[in-house]
């Protein structure tokens, strides 16, 4: 479909038998919808009442090798949003890496039900002072982060947390949801949850010497998202 940033594409994986949610997933700046975690979610989530929409940004559809500026990525995502909401269901805005940043930046204005951030690039590799935590904490809706334990763009322990090492101090008006085996962190009006994929890199790939297989690592991802998505609607 046309957007102000160019021609984009949505590949639908419909829920069966009945859809309760739409999960829209954008890709990163270095790859497309063939990413292992996006493919795994598209294969598993439909059986749990979640229609998965894999979104290809205009630059990717045009065959370009380099992603444009974040502002242009946001424009493309906004242009796709009416099609994502057309089924009349709540939409989880999500993506991996740069796609996760887009989802966080635009969630509030677009009325997303929640945000799924896969491999959120908290900072450039080796540059922790260049934090993008404000984007994550500013999403303003329930957010799930799925992060590789060895992600050079931000390991789980680097993510911000209220009350580290003591009882969590929650600002007035902040609502906390249950943690998924990691921690719940107070953000701007909502908490975010963080799930670690042990040994995973930025693409959630695990080395052969790891004590979990690649298949098991992807099951960590899909199980966490199934549980979390199920908590968003009755």
TrEMBL record:
UniProtKB keywords: Hydrolase
Domain KANL3/Tex30 alpha/beta hydrolase-like residues, every copy: 22-162
InterPro entries given in the database record: AB_hydrolase_fold (IPR029058), KANL3/Tex30_Abhydrolase (IPR046879), NSL3/Tex30 (IPR026555)
Domain of life of the native organism: Bacteria
GO MF annotation, one: hydrolase activity
Keyword Calcium tagged: no
Coiled-coil blocks: none
Gene3D superfamilies, alphabetized: alpha/beta hydrolase (3.40.50.1820)
Keyword Hydrolase listed: yes
Name listed for the protein in its UniProt record: Hydrolase
Organism: Streptomyces hirsutus
Source taxonomy: Bacteria, Bacillati, Actinomycetota, Actinomycetes, Kitasatosporales
